Amino acid sequence: MGKWDAMKREAQVRHRARPRLLVTLKYLENLPEYSCSLPTGTTPGKRWKGEVHFQPYGKRSLPRIGWMISEYYEGPELPPNRIGIHWYRPVIRVKAETERATL
After folding, report:
1. How many CB atoms lie within 10 A of CB 12?
2. In b/e form, how buried is each residue of 16-52, taking b as 16+ CB within 10 angstroms?
3. For the segment 14-52, what is each residue's pLDDT rounded down to a tens digit?
4. How many angstroms separate the CA atoms of 39 and 31, rounded?
5. CA angle at residue 37 from 72 to 75, to 5 degrees?
6. With contact defined as beta carbons under 8 Å apart, do 72 and 92 qualify?
7. How far apart are CA 82 and CA 42, in angstroms?
8. pLDDT at 38
9. Using CA atoms, how far apart are residues 68 and 91, in angstroms rounded to an integer?
10. Taking the mean position of all CA atoms in its chain, how far away is CA 11?
11. Rounded distance, CA 89 to CA 39, Å?
12. Is 45 left (phi over 0), alpha (psi -120 to 50) or beta?
């Protein structure tokens, strides 16, 4: 396994370890995208999506792994006048089609 493959595998493992967030496909598609930057206006609860293979400011770090959803938050563990970012792995929720067996 080459270095690039090892980096990709490590990134996949880290991404799968992120907390999951159940969303609909429409919700994910409607989130603003900030793959290469962070949004202005650090309001707690503000969410956006980004591709995992980009670091802030457009630095490409890995092959594409997937999407993540980010959210600004306030917390007691943060320094005064600072805001944190939660990172989530989106899980698309879909309605299941079921068939009832007729006797």
Report:
1. 15
2. eeeeebebeeebeeebeebbeeeeeeeeeebbbbbbb
3. 777 889 999 999 999 999 999 878 888 889 999 999 887
4. 12
5. 15
6. no
7. 9
8. 84
9. 10
10. 13
11. 19
12. left
Residue bearing tokens 């202005």: 40
Exposure string for 63-80, b = 16+ CB within 10 A, e = fewer: eebebbbbebeeeeeeee
Angle of CA points 24, 58, 32, to nearest 5°: 30
40, two tokens? 């202005």
In the structure encoding, which two tokens stand for residue 53, read together? 């293979």
Q: For residue 85, which of 101, 74, 94 has the smallest C-alpha distance? A: 74
CA 24 distance to own-chain centroid: 14
Indicate yes or no: pTM above 0.70: yes
Which ranges in the chain belong to alpha helices (H)?
3-17, 25-30
The reported pLDDT for the residue numbered 63 is: 63
